[in-house]
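Q: My collaborator sent me two sequences in one message, no labels, and asked for predicted structures for both. Can we handle them in order? The first one she listed is below.
A: Yes, handling them in the order given. First sequence, followed by its structure tokens:
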Amino acid sequence: MDVLDRAETYLQLHGRLIDRLRFEALFRDGSRERALDVLRCHQNPDGGFGHALEPDLRGAGSQPEPVEVAFWILDELAAFDSPMVPAACDYLAGVTAADGGVPFVLPSVRDTLRAPWWQTDDDPPGNLIPTASIAGLLHKHGITHPWLATATDFCWSRIAAVQETSPYEARAIVTFLNLVPERDRAEAEFARLREAILATVALDPDTPGEVHFPLDFAPEPLRLPLFTQDVLDAHLDAFMDPRFDDDKWGLNWLIWTPVVEHEWGGYLAVQRLKTLRAYGRLP
């Protein structure tokens, strides 16, 4: 059984409807509109997304991070012309902090069930997570919305202050710098931060524990390359390895409630197939 068939079996046994339909749309000539229909069910009247679209945020209400998850799905389905996008930007504008970025998480999360790391102060500032990734995706698709200019200024300002970084912040920075249209500025910041970003990456595919691997930063070939081809090949080989045909699909972070194991597992299964295709390992 090849990796596509193994992923399909896993998704049929364990995956969420949205991840099953993403798989069908991307790898089995299924309907993209059906996947978008499910995504719309996660969008709230305020334009934000909730309802466990980000599996570790179990609440129905909107939070900034699920907007990033939704935008990655819209990106893969070539659906950034969807009305879901301007509605989400309106939502982001409404929850943006005074510094121009959206917070990592809003205080309203305290009223919901969520993973223990989703904590916040009463008046949280903007954060590169998820502001930088969201802004990068909007730039990639040429979206014009008043929120984007403010968020872009915030990202440049915060990135300029970064000396050391964390894996999730580094991934957001890489996304922004790869997609923002100001290329000279992006290349200069990338050169300055390259070693700090690499310090957050586990290059050995057998590294145990909650670590971040090269393909987490480069799920497709980057405009600003971080890794040599031999490093990428080793991790692509690992994605094809049967050890990822287990019940977690490589999930290596805390499972704080049983349902998220397979919700993340299905999401990751599709993500990894997309990565294998982006590097020419799948048709």
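Q: And the one she listed second?
A: Here it is, processed independently of the first:
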Amino acid sequence: MEKIKKIEIITTSLELGKVLEILDKLGVSGYSVIRNVIGKGGRGMADDDIEMSVLSNVYVMTTCAEKEVHQLVEAIRPILKRFGGICLVSDAEWIIH
């Protein structure tokens, strides 16, 4: 098994394009996106109200090599600072790739 870093990002759907653009620029080869993520955080409750879907949250999960984590996190940080959200980094292992 190969050791990697798992990156989980939750941000507003308005910023999804920017997040995916950052991943593409950094050469991240793949990711998963889950739309209409609901939950509660420091800015209150985020729900999936259809009328307000433009303000709904999205979940992005990807992986990268440990040496790429810092660059990815620093590129995502301004988006999270401006619009809220979270970015989690954890250790993981590829079973099959």
